[in-house]
Amino acid sequence: MAFELAVFDMAGTTVHDPDLVTQALTEALGAFGCQVSAAKVRLLMGYTKPAAIRSLLSEHDFAADDAQVDAVHADFVERMLHCYRNGNDVRPMAGAEDVFAQLRGAGIRVAVNTAFSRDIAETLIGRFGWRTRGLIDDATSADQVAEGRPAPDMIRQLMLRNGVTDPRRVVKVGDTEVDIREGRRAGCGLVIAVTTGAYGREQLEPYQPDALLDSLAELPPLLASFVPGQTR
Which Gene3D superfamilies has this protein been placed in (predicted)? Predict the structure, then answer.
């Protein structure tokens, strides 16, 4: 069965991010008085950031009502926008742009989705010129759907906008366990995890992705040789 759409996560998957998300979220919580370890924050990578903030505030016995969550999230967004606009180490993940071009050349539409808000996602897309250079077909973010990961809403939105009706013709690629669960809940024909971001191989294997890659460069040959029901 030919694939029609590939949906890629951003930070840690297609965007090289030297732990800036963890740092910004830790600092935003700290500014509110909630001291959280970076290790705790990393456990929630891939989830929508308001949901992660709410969970961390509650875990540390802070008020986690909408007003408090919104205040911390607004601080986080400002920190991320500054980092992503100005950070010298922020760049496309090695091999990502070549993979985008190869997939589009093979007739597979390419989209990115993210647990970030739209303003952060569009800052990265604009900085890298992914739309203007014809490297991606579409993008969405958690604040543009009813429910973020692990709900399948973002993938279904991208399918609808790109004329894909069969989820088995969709490939989902991400670097966290919640990316894997998102792909499964959407019914994607292939759910792939990469070890380039938040989690290592030993952390991702228990969630049983269809394939576990150490580099995005491994993706095109995998798709070319893919046999349904076979895992790698």
Answer: HAD superfamily/HAD-like (3.40.50.1000), Putative phosphatase, domain 2 (1.10.150.240)
**Residues 195, 201: Cα–Cα separation, whole Å:** 6
Query: Is there a single domain that holds both residue 11 and residue 35?
Result: no
Q: Is 33 part of a structural domain of the chain?
A: yes
Distance in angstroms (rounded) separating the CA atoms of residues 182 and 134: 26
Number of structural domains (the chain) is: 2
**Residues near 154 by Cβ (< 8 Å), separated by ≥ 6?**
7, 113, 140, 141, 142, 144, 145, 148, 182
Q: Are residues 207 and 108 in the same domain?
A: yes
Angle between helix 49-59 and helix 66-86 axes, rounded to 10 deg = 120
HEC readout, 185-197: HHCCCEEEEECCC
Residue whose tokens read 């924050």: 41
Q: How many CB atoms lie within 10 A of CB 206?
A: 8
CA 170 to chain CA centroid, nearest Å: 15
221 to each of 111, 217, 224, 226, how far by Cα in Å?
19, 8, 5, 8
> 167 with 187: CB under 8 angstroms?
yes
| pLDDT, tens digit (0-9, with 9 covering 90-100), for 62-105 | 888 899 999 999 999 999 999 999 989 999 999 999 999 999 99
